[in-house]
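Lab meeting, action items carried over

1. Structure of the two-component assembly. Owner: GW. Status: complete.
Input record:
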Amino acid sequence: QIRELDSILAELKGLKRGRLNIAVVSTANYFAPQLLAEFCSQYPEIKVSLNVGNRESVLKQLHDNEIDLAILGRPPKGIEVEAHPFMENRIVIIAAGNSPYASESAIPPTRFQDETFIMREQGSGTRIATEEFFAAHHVRIKTGMEMSTNESVKQAVQAGMGLGVLSLDTVMLEVETGRLVVLDVQGFPIIRHWYIVHRESKRLSGVAAAFKKFLISK
Amino acid sequence: QIRELDSILAELKGLKRGRLNIAVVSTANYFAPQLLAEFCSQYPEIKVSLNVGNRESVLKQLHDNEIDLAILGRPPKGIEVEAHPFMENRIVIIAAGNSPYASESAIPPTRFQDETFIMREQGSGTRIATEEFFAAHHVRIKTGMEMSTNESVKQAVQAGMGLGVLSLDTVMLEVETGRLVVLDVQGFPIIRHWYIVHRESKRLSGVAAAFKKFLISK
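Predicted assembly:
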């Protein structure tokens, strides 16, 4: 209740103060801080707390009303939310910069028969999407190392241990510096969206409403 | 018990096969995959599973005997382990590449009076170390955004929202490309070590023992 009062006061003060609590899934970790920074540069007195977790933990925080807003790759089911798409999320296949695949175009998925992929852990959304894609093309891939974070997958792919499937947002710097290369594979990128999400019943603070509007307008 | 049998068989086969389950704290996320890749290139049939978590979750996995080895910044207390230091962990102060501090040398900590720092969440080891350092120098810093991951801190610092305190291992690429700069501050880097840890009572598999030896020999 004190927080709610704080929020109302913040609105009265024209967003000069206030606090924004936001939770994002780990892939959004790579771009959410810049968006927050851009937003905060307009409202420098706002305090921001960004909590990064897996999908399960973000949904729990949303459900428990611990956060104002969440950024997710798929709107949740089973809990009543408002979800607005705001940015493309391109899922790509990556290889080490010196991979022989780097120079090829329109690679058919069948070329990856028996190829080793560095995989996220069992149950990861990216892993499920990857396995479904190759199953649909009747291609059997090999699971190399299993890594529980995007960062580890990137590092292992860079080290030449196999190919990886990741959101383009997580590999920009490595691609720019030639450490990793995005392969031109038929069917890729898989294009999804990022969603800004809050509970349907949530009374958004002025700051949270402004941030939501800022994202959707991008 | 089946896993234990598997491990013994792996040893008999001269490490040609076998499985290595390792958990590391999130900062080690940035270098552990390369070490695993280097190790695995000698034993390509080994299956590796790397689980990245916060300190609490890594300790729980160690305690529950779910992993062979853990990589931590400080050996745990309260559970009987063998812990061997193997690599330096340099804690540094970072700023955006265009920061005016970038060109200064031997900056006294008092220069950071009232400076904004992008902080890890309450309870984070890096945050505690940062607050202790500045308190010891009677310097009051301001807490800007609070971010729950190293990656978010890096991104927010790059976006010019404040300074940050991180392990050098997490910022190599950004420093190399000039996006971030390591400041030359008196008292920094704070030098710690990484530890490879297992339960004292653990019967290490051949693969795990070999990986431990590989790390310590580096």
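2. GW to write a short summary for the group page. Key points so far: Chain B touches chain A through 39 residues (CB under 8 Å). The mean pLDDT of chain B is 90.
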